[in-house]
Amino acid sequence: MGKIDSEKKVIQNMIRLYCRKKHKGEELCDECNILLNYATDRLTKCPFKDEKPACADCKVHCYKTEMREKIRRVMRFSGPRMIIYYPKDFFIHILKKSH
After folding, report:
1. Coil, strand or helix: which one is 54?
2. Which of 3, 23, 62, 76 measures 20 to 30 Å from 70, CA to CA?
3. What is the mean pLDDT of residues 21-27?
4. How much of the chain exceeds pLDDT 70, in percent?
5. 36 touches 11 (CB < 8 A)
6. Cβ count near 20 (within 10 Å)
7. Neighbouring C-beta atoms of residue 13, cutoff 10 Å
8. What's the predicted TM-score (pTM) here?
9. Which residues contact 2 (CB under 8 A, 6 or more apart)?
10. How far apart are CA 27 and CA 55, in angstroms?
11. What are the Cα distances from residue 29, in Å, to 7, 68, 90?
């Protein structure tokens, strides 16, 4: 699995976790579904492909301001909880981030 596919999986898990806990539904709400589609589209179109840096370290900011704020909220909430709900993905993400 390439870096882009791996990041898509992580962001999908983060958004699902956020939506489940904040919006109390089993399925993604419309707002979270739009955010997931937007984030995966941005990853698909990333000009760096599998050489992509972490978004926070990237010189190209491809998210619209509103969407960037939404994804930050999701990451702030879901990031620390990933170790509980998705421990395998959490550790893989941490290991890849350190390289």
Report:
1. coil
2. 3
3. 93
4. 95
5. yes
6. 17
7. 17
8. 0.88
9. 49, 50
10. 27
11. 21, 18, 24
SS3 percent helix, strand, coil of the chain, rounded to 5, is 75, 0, 25
Calculate the alpha carbon distances from 44 to 59, 60, 72, 86 in Å.
Answer: 17, 14, 19, 23
How confident is the model over 42-90, as pLDDT tens digits?
Answer: 999 998 888 887 777 788 888 999 999 999 999 999 999 999 999 988 8
* Residue 24 zone, left/alpha/beta (φ > 0; ψ -120 to 50; rest): left
Provide the token pair at 53.
């840096």
Dig out the tokens for 40 from the structure: 């995966």
Whether the Cβ atoms of residue 68 and residue 62 lie closer than 8 Å to each other? no
CB 9 within 8 A of CB 86: no
